[in-house]
Amino acid sequence: MGANDRVEPVVQLSGVSKTFGAVQALDGVDLEIMPGEVRCLAGENGAGKSTLIKILTGAIRRDAGDYRVGGSDAGNPTPAAARSLGVGVVYQELSLLPDLSVEENLLMGRLPASGGGLLVRSGELRASAQRMLGRVGLEYVDPATFASELPASTRQMVEVAKVLGADARLVIFDEPTTSLAEEEAGRLLRLVSQLKAEGIAVLYVTHRLEEMFKVGDTITVLRDGSLVTTAPVSEFDHDSLIRAMVGRSVENLYPEHAPKEGGKLLLSVRGLRLSGSEHDVNLEVRAGEIVGLGGLVGAGRTEILRAIFGADPIEAGEIEVNGELLKSGSPRRAVEAGLGLISEDRKEEGLLLDLSIRENVSVADLSEVSRGGVVSQARERSVLDRLLSDLRLRYDSYEQPVSSLSGGNQQKVLLARWLATRAKVLLFDEPTKGVDVGAKADIYRLIGDLAARGIGVVVVSSYLPELLGICDRVIVVRENAVAGELDAKGATEEDVMRLASGAAGGAAGPEGGASVHA
Amino acid sequence: MSTPKVPRQSDSGQATPPEAREGTPGSREEEPEERVLGLTDILGREAGGLLVLLVLIAALTIATETFLTGTNLANLVRQVTVFAVLAVGQLFVILTAGIDLSVGSVLALSGAVTAQMLVAGVPVPVAAVLGIIIGLLLGVFNGVLVAFFGIPPFITTLGMLGMARGMVLLITDARTISGLPESFQVIANGSVLGVPNLLVALLIVGVVATFVLGRTVFGRYVYAVGSNAESARLSGVPVTRVLVTVYAISGLLAGVAGVLIASRLGAGIPTAGTGYELQAIAGAVIGGASLSGAKGRALGAILGALIMATLENGGNLLGVDPFYLQIAIGALILIAVFFDQVQQRGLRFGRASA
Fold this sequence. Notes:
The structure holds two protein chains of two kinds.
Chain A lengths: L10 E10 L2 E11 L4 E5 L6 H9 L6 E6 L2 E2 L5 H7 L1 E4 L11 H5 L6 E2 L4 E2 L1 H14 L16 H14 L4 E5 L7 H16 L3 E5 L3 H7 L2 E6 L2 E7 L5 H9 L18 E10 L6 E6 L3 E6 L5 H9 L4 E8 L2 E3 L4 H7 L1 E4 L3 H4 L7 H6 L7 E2 L2 E2 L1 H15 L15 H14 L4 E5 L7 H16 L3 E5 L3 H7 L2 E6 L2 E7 L5 H8 L18
Parallel strand pairs in A: 3-10, 3-11, 6-9, 9-10, 15-22, 15-23, 18-21, 21-22
Antiparallel strand pairs in A: 1-2, 1-4, 4-5, 7-8, 11-12, 13-14, 13-16, 16-17, 19-20, 23-24
Helix pairs in contact in A: 4-5, 8-17, 13-14
Chain B lengths: L17 H4 L17 H5 L3 H17 L6 H26 L7 H17 L4 H26 L3 H20 L4 E2 L3 H8 L1 E2 L2 E2 H19 L1 H11 L1 H6 L4 H27 L1 E2 L7 H11 L11 H21 L3 H32 L1
Antiparallel strand pairs in B: 1-4, 2-3
Helix pairs in contact in B: 3-14, 4-9, 4-12, 4-13, 4-14, 5-6, 5-7, 5-12, 6-7, 6-12, 8-12, 9-10, 10-12, 13-14, 13-15, 14-15
């Protein structure tokens, strides 16, 4: 770097660190972006990309390191201060206020006003808004439209106009194309090139590798909160970039699991179409099999899991559990058919925090411990006696509130809930999220045991070593569709990343190709 | 107050850090940790309420000649039954983190319709049952709006409060319907083997509600929905059915209360039950129910209603200005909720170290 000695970098971070509790989110990271440079930020989920962006935009405070904007110390800016320094961000999740008009959104916080700031000068507002829209090629949008009435792609462009309108010198794009179709994404990339031509610096964050090669000048790779490298795009190809992002050794946490060949078909998903998606998802899980669902955050893994379980409405598709067709849209029927879902967000979509361990375990299968609608606590306790000794749950009493348990133990209570129902297929969404390493190994072992007992298991995980470590095969999901399938034994993390980011459409193989996705 | 758990970490003489023991097999077999039993361990959330009630009774027994007499206690039962029945119905709704503001109006409508039917010559059992069914139907209506259309309970039942009150004023022309047959009035004013019928009704409602909430699958579902409706749904709990049922129960019990009031007064009064919804909520809350759901028992709701009725009764006996009584009841609600908060914070404190 530093090709241009005379020009000051637009932003300059040096030695920036940030910890959240025990997690080192960023560790001594340096970053320098020059005017007119398009910098791509690459890294796996949890590598520290979001933290870096939040420090730049003032959303969070750094623990250590310097932050300079245009050569002068920016201190610890508030979000408003960062914006006035010229650092703007276009978020993945749109931040426009849906019930306000486009023009109000564009000039929110600095509406032209008279009468001591009480009356909005609507003519001036309209004119400024039109000017801002014109800059991103949205002359045709009526500034008085409500933001909620615009399609997602247009909203995104309005967002860009808003950032530019605040005289941004650096525009940060955080996964801007995640919610866009191919054509709209192309339009956005052209806009990035246009910004570059105007001398505006761009920090571009994306999981789609091909976009980095298309628009980027330089790439900064983060891994586990540390800077791996910063180099011109020309020094990378797909494989070396993925290696730089992933490059860590697989820990030996995973139990040996011999997949059973030709087990009974327990779960069959045919032509499943999520609402708002155009693609069909097909997948099968046999008895004793552990199937991974890989892919990037937002690729539709959780949505597929929830759709199978009937937690969300679907557009089309058939789900068969143990040979019986499941009526969609009802978790209750799914539970009766033998499915169990262990959600990513245990507290909001799993646990009944006010209730006891006993009540949490038995809630999905009260018919088993009741007669004529009357629950027998003695039978509840005998079910718990049978299940909990296997799970190595740490607790004082069955009657203690489940909220008093640690994350790993709470996960085991949820597992016990589904073991109580004698579920045939268990769907795990990020099963080790927020779980410490010891309990992680326990959960891996339990998942292996479940499969050995003939249960079909589906695991969604963003953590690739885990996915490859515990699964028999991995189905990679991209844009609510199956992008490919890998045998976990032979596959590498690079293979998964390649499929997940759409670099290649084919199955496993080192020669998957670095072709740019068209 | 709850007894904070003794954190394992502080057990002296055990060198193994808890993290290392986290996954060790047979951790269940470890010796149980010592706990000091507190009042709440034995009586649950109702302990505070029971204490307040006992103190009240003791004080009134000493301060007045008349409190502990048969006539006065019969009087107290008459005052408390309607509120206690409403509070139990309210409790079902509150346990799901909902609220039912319509019970006072529904009570009036049930009572007035029953009275009108009686005046028109409908047999007593038929009129009483139909009156109760009106309450049930209005409750189902509330429940459907809440469960299927996602209208907030506060708004749904506020609407019903207005609608039911308007209906009763309309059909009665805002006039009291009197001249109800003796065989109807005996329902609330008679007694079985010396026990007032109202007390029998209260006991039946209390026992059935305690059994339903404490022992049945449906009761368990009520607490599950109140704790976290989405978690409950994903566990296969029929959340919409549970919600409709709790509002139906609240409506049903409001209907029962309406018929009982009409019977006790021998008249259908269109303005009966005004403000009772707040009394019912207060009773449930004083008895330990949490408006955020999943906490509270039928016994508590009845205790809460008893405390309020005893305060009022005692105030009358002592000749205390009723305005002071209102202040006292208001303060009692705040005190009950305050202690609940303190208790929860205490629990959380214990959890942090456990």
